[in-house]
Amino acid sequence: MAEAHQAVGFQFTVRPDGVDLKLSQDVIKNIYLSGVTAWKKKAIQFKNGVLAGVYPACPSSWLIVVIAMMSSLYIRVDPSLGMIDAIKDNLPLSRDCMSVQTRAVLSAILFATGLWLFLIYLLRYTLKALLSYHGWIFESHGRMSTSTKVWLSLVKMFSGRRPLLFSFQASLPRLPVPRVDDTIRRYLESVHPLLDSDQYDQMEVLANDFKNSKAAQLQRFLILKSYWATNYVSDWWEEYIYLRGRSPIMVNSNFYIMDLLYVTPTHRQAARAGNVVHAMLQYRRKLERGEHAPMRALGTVPMCSTQMERMFNTTRIPGVYNLVNDQSAAGTGSSCVFATQIPWARTRIKHFSHGVNKVSLDAIESAAFFLTLDDEPQGYDPAKTNSLDSYAKSLLHGKCYDRWFDKSFTLISYPNGKIGINAEHSWADAPIVGHMWEYILATDCFHLGYTEEGHCKGDENKGLPYPTRLQWQITKECQDAIGTSYLWAKQIADDVDFHGYLFTEFGKGLIKKCRTSPDAFIQLALQLAQFRDQGVFCLTYESSMTRMFRDGRTETVRSCTSEAVAFVRAMEDPSVKEILALFRNAADKHQNMYRLAMTGSGIDRHLFCLYIVSKYLGIDSQFLEKVLSEPWRLSTSQTPQQQLNLIDINKFPKYVGAGGGFGPVADDGYGVSYIIIGEDLITFHISSKFSSPDTDSYRFGQHIQRAMLDIKRLFMPENDKLEQHGEFVQLKNGKKHI
């Protein structure tokens, strides 16, 4: 009974002589400490809100302006040009309440405050105007013009000192709405290599008809939104692409990030999970206080930090959507749609909205994040050819019931000490999660560390509460719903064909010596691999970021250009000369398209928003319908690395991450994620579906390897190139199964 008494915060007994009240000192102490912690947190958030609100100035600058104005009263100099006297004469206070001197002092303070606020807004809008200039992006790498150097100096001067995470938010420019003519011209240019002459002529007619009839009206509403909202794309992108989608987010939306490639700090699962959780909570505390440094391109140009706000204590809540009554939805894959999101929403309402189930579900959905202690070891093993394949599938979908896919992210810990993340996509994009992940890995390995036995360092805290088992009451009807959803989920997971491999022949170092962009090099290699794998070209998606604008997220780079097609065809035709010139032309084209996407002149987000406006207005557009229905059979993305530079990979070359990946976007296509690691390593994550007879992830990986090597040979001396002309990698004919 002693344990039961200690578990009660206070107890009282009614006696004839009164009430005997006993309070637990431990509980009172913990209540007090909790209150102190909460108020400290509120105070820090208030302070950071003030600091971010007046940035690039600082609160102490207000005092300087006030002192300057007060000093002017005594030396009889009026820098306000009579405005202080005007304020004094119009103060809504009785002259009997204050002396003349007091009224003068108050007027000077009010004028100084107004002047200070005016200067803040002047600095802020000057910085915003400077950040609206993007000419520096279009300059050749390593060659900075004098005008760009001057511009960078001005940005540094107006950026203030020691900014907090959200200090630059109010100074970031708005994402511009491109001209309809420019977007349609670029769109037609992007599909020209993918269509025959009749198909292209038909598309051109549809595009011109849209441009001349409906586009102007839709554009006006979009421009109006761009002035009213902080970003004309992001809210609709989140709502219609992510939250209103009815397909299962497992495999189709969520993505994963892997652990360090070569290093496992400890092989004790509990120790690794404990340190990583500790590091994550440290990151969350710094995030709440705004203490992380804002990300900046070139170390100077700030990028938006909005996506980081929902990293922790966030979950995706399913809702019942009227799609269930829409007969038009009954098409390919509709049974899978109805068996996932809508049943979960209904089951959640019926079985998890009351009693112990609601309490347990609330505990999960309000938690900082979800932690899974997996029971099967994973990780990269050079002795096993498919170790990355198995690792990727485990992170992407697991056993289908041991990941909480609706949480902002699930931390997965394996019994051999490896870890990884499965992230929900609606709240943020991969670079945001990658930022946190780099901090976690560096803190775990180099700051927290482990003992020689592999245990966490530090002293045991016996005052921490023990874990509490969540209680569930699962009825037969609920079990049946869970079983049905599990079968559908397992069918989706089993269909994922993954292949991950390390390309070690060369990396960024050699590519840069060839005076070309590593990303353009890889994208052209992917186009060559795609053509060799499928025999045709396809619409290709490459993700680019727009975070130099307020609330910016992503834009699409359509990598399959006419220049890329010309290069690939030349590579497959031995009679064609000057292939290197075609490669450079295609690489330059790709780089220019990437820069246009980054600076708000992309194609797809503009067309997407025009489509949304057309639906709101009830305007049918055959052109927009056709554009939005085109399948992306090759979807690609580069995983960013070294955003924080917390680990010197030159000094610690083994402490590099393996990157991450995602599931295939199209049923008959490929998803390819790659990370350029250091100077000599590129890791590829390739996904497709076993159910497609036309795709094979392992085969595609072999095609990528061959394409990379073939492009490298273009930069070799002519005699070496001819000598190695016949070299190639023999491909497998059959499909690989896991």
UniProtKB/TrEMBL annotation:
Entry annotated with the keyword Membrane: yes
Record membrane topology: Multi-pass membrane protein
Active site: H425 (proton acceptor)
Pathway it works in: Lipid metabolism; fatty acid beta-oxidation
Transmembrane segments: 50-75, 104-123
Primary role: Catalyzes the transfer of the acyl group of long-chain fatty acid-CoA conjugates onto carnitine, an essential step for the mitochondrial uptake of long-chain fatty acids and their subsequent beta-oxidation in the mitochondrion.
Protein name: Carnitine O-palmitoyltransferase 1, muscle isoform
Organism encoding this protein: Echeneis naucrates
